[in-house]
C-alpha cells in the first residue's frame, strides 16, 4: 500500500510484529459497515461517481458474504482488517477500489470500527446484566421472608432475609448497567472523516456518515478523534467494576456451597466433579467468575498503561488497544451468563440458613434495642447488659431466647417476659422495616420496584 516510497520490503519480524489481522479481523462487520457509509457519502457529495460508488458497495457486500461464509483470511502482509478488505476489493472490482480510501485514513477508520464494536459490547453487557437481574429479583421475591445470618467481618451479625441479600446484588448490578449506558452515551460521536489527524480537504459530509452508522454527531476535533480510546477505557472500567461485583457474588456462592456453610446447592449444570474424589461437586463456574474478574481488571490496566504516555495523534501502540477489550468482553459476557444461571437454578437450604442465624446470637442487637425502647436504658449501657446475656448463653450453650427469664433478670431486673418477642429471628427482621431495611415487607416493596424497572409488570 505504501511501496512507492520504499526500496525494500519489511523483514519477517516487521511483518509479524506489525500484523493486527489475527485479532482485528473481529472488526470485519464494522469495517465493511463504515466503508459502505463512507462510499455512500462520497457519492452523495460528488467526490466519487454514483457508478463507482455502486461498484464499490457491491464489492463490499460480496466480501461480507465471503467472510460470513468462510471467515476472514489472515495474511500478515496485509497487516490489518482494513487493508485485508481493501485488497480483496481490488481483486474483485479492480482499480476503482482505490477510490474508497479518498478522504479517510486507517486512523479514523480504526477509531470508527472499534467504537462500533465497543458500542455493541456495551449493549451485550447491559443485556447480560438484565438477565442476571431478572434471576436475582425472581429469587428475592421467592425468599423475601427466608431468614439467614447477615455478616460483618464474616461473623454472624444480625439476621437478614435472603431476599434482602439478593437484592443487594440487584442494586450493585443496577449501577453497573448504568455505567455501560453512560459509556454508550459518551461514545456516541463518529470519528470517521477525521482522516489521518487533521481532517480533509475534500467536501465530505460527516453528519451523513455519523447518522448512517447510528451516531448522534461527528466528533468535533480530528486530532482527538484519532487519538482517543476513552470509549474503550470506559468499557473496560465499567467491565472491571461489574466483574468485581460478580466476583463478590461468586465468592459468596462458593462459601455458601461449602459443606460447613451448606446454605446452597449449585446446579449440576454449572458445577464439575472430581476425577479422584467421588463425593465432590465443585463450584468451578463461580470460581472462574472470580478468576475472570482479575483478568478483566488486568485488561483495563493494560490499556490505561498503553495510552498514558502517547503524544497526539495516532501511534502504533494504539493497535494494542483491541486484544484487552476483546478479551475482557468475552470474559464478562460469560461471567454474567454463569452468574445468571447459578442464581436462577441454585437450591437454597433455608432451614440451614435459619439455623445459622439462630445459632450466632444474631438477635443480640434486638435485645439491646429492646432495653433502650422498653426500659429507657441508654444504648451503651444496654449494649453492656446484652453482652453479659450473650456470655451467659454461650457458657450454657443456649440461644438467647432459650435463657430462662430469672437468669436474664439476674443480669438486669428491668427485663421482663415481653423481651422474648424481640429475640426471635423473625421478630428481628420484621422490626427492621426502615426504608431500605431487611424486613420482608420492605424487601417486597423493593422487589416490586425492581420488577417495574425491568419491565416485568
Ligand atoms: N492496524 C492499525 C490499528 O489497529 C490501523 C491503523 C493504522 N494506522 C497507521 N497509521 N499505521 O491501530
Automatic annotation (TrEMBL):
Q: Which CDD domains match?
A: Argininosuccinate_lyase
**Ranges where the Argininosuccinate lyase C-terminal domain occurs:** 361-430
Tell me the Gene Ontology biological-process terms attached to this UniProt entry: L-arginine biosynthetic process via ornithine
What are the entry keywords? Amino-acid biosynthesis, Arginine biosynthesis, Cytoplasm, Lyase
Pathway(s) per entry: Amino-acid biosynthesis; L-arginine biosynthesis; L-arginine from L-ornithine and carbamoyl phosphate: step 3/3
GO CC terms, sorted? cytosol
**Pfam families recorded for this chain?**
ASL_C2, Lyase_1
Q: Where in the cell is it found?
A: Cytoplasm
Gene Ontology molecular function: argininosuccinate lyase activity
Q: In terms of one coarse class, where is the protein primarily found?
A: cytoplasm
Q: Where do the Fumarate lyase N-terminal domain residues begin and end?
A: 4-298
Enzyme Commission code(s) on record: 4.3.2.1
Q: Which reaction does it catalyse?
A: 2-(N(omega)-L-arginino)succinate = fumarate + L-arginine
Write down the InterPro entries for this protein, in alphabetical order. Arg_succ_lyase_C, Argininosuccinate_lyase, Fumarase/histidase_N, Fumarate_lyase_CS, Fumarate_lyase_fam, Fumarate_lyase_N, L-Aspartase-like
Entry similarity comment: Belongs to the lyase 1 family. Argininosuccinate lyase subfamily.
Question: What is the designated name of this protein?
Answer: Argininosuccinate lyase
